[in-house]
């Protein structure tokens, strides 16, 4: 909690060292705050029907056919770089065990240490970004999940997890988008929890810091939306996250 005294300006003029209430200013990133922000209306992502012969069913099945037509190479992503260790494992289609969907790289101690070091180095700058800017990142991600990448995520869930169209729709499309959007709403509600009263001449504020170090998110093999949420929720709150999808 920061205690912001009304006499701070006078103290500054007198040469007394004071601290800014803004993490962005403390980090050296100057962000003008010329308004308070009201979130867009947050609601559940509408489900689609995928009726036989509909355009949405045809587009989805075309994506399933395209994705299943070849074996994909999935690298590690460490500090924005694609990394190939040469130690790969196979992901097979549970409904067709002969089909190898992808070969994904696995990390060793060297790669894990590099990822941790990069995450910890990035945390302070990410945490210092104003909440509304972080929220905008995840609202944009939700729109991409619900629109541009909807069928790609659904196709991957159908092939990799053995789900039917409806199961993939409510998991990889709608619930993944819902997690991202509702987390933004809940973050605002958390930040809005402030001291209800103050001593005379004092104006208190609670600030919610990220965790020291990093968050290690291990997501389940069979639930796309939870894979999204376990990494995205702590990241939204200013944490650095190492994401490891589970193979089993």
TrEMBL record:
Domain of life, per lineage: Eukaryota
Lineage: Eukaryota, Fungi, Fungi incertae sedis, Zoopagomycota, Kickxellomycotina
Protein name: 1-pyrroline-5-carboxylate dehydrogenase
Keywords attached to this entry: Oxidoreductase
Gene encoding the protein: PUT2_2
This enzyme's EC code(s): 1.2.1.88
């Amino acid at each position: 909690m920061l205690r912001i005294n009304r006499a701070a300006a006078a103290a500054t003029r007198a040469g007394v060292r004071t601290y800014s209430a803004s993490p962005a200013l403390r980090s050296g990133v100057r962000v003008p705050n010329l308004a308070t922000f009201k979130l867009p209306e947050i609601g559940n992502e509408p489900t689609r029907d995928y009726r036989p012969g509909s355009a949405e069913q045809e587009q989805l099945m075309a994506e399933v056919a395209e994705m299943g037509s070849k074996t994909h190479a999935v690298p590690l992503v460490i500090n924005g770089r694609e990394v190939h260790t040469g130690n790969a494992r196979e992901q097979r289609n549970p409904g067709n065990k002969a089909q190898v969907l992808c070969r994904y790289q696995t990390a060793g101690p060297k790669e894990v240490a590099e990822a941790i070091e990069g995450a910890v180095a990035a945390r302070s700058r990410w945490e210092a970004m104003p909440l509304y800017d972080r929220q905008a990142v995840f609202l944009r991600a939700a729109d991409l999940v619900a629109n541009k990448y909807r069928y790609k995520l659904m196709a991957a869930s159908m092939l990799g997890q053995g789900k039917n169209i409806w199961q993939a729709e409510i998991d990889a499309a709608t619930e993944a988008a819902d997690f991202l959007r509702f987390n933004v709403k809940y973050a605002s509600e958390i930040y809005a929890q402030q001291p209800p009263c103050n001593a005379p001449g004092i104006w208190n504020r609670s600030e919610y810091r990220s965790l020291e170090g990093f968050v290690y998110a291990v997501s389940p093999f069979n639930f796309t939306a939870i894979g999204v949420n376990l990494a995205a929720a702590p990241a939204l709150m200013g944490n650095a996250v190492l994401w490891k999808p589970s193979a089993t």
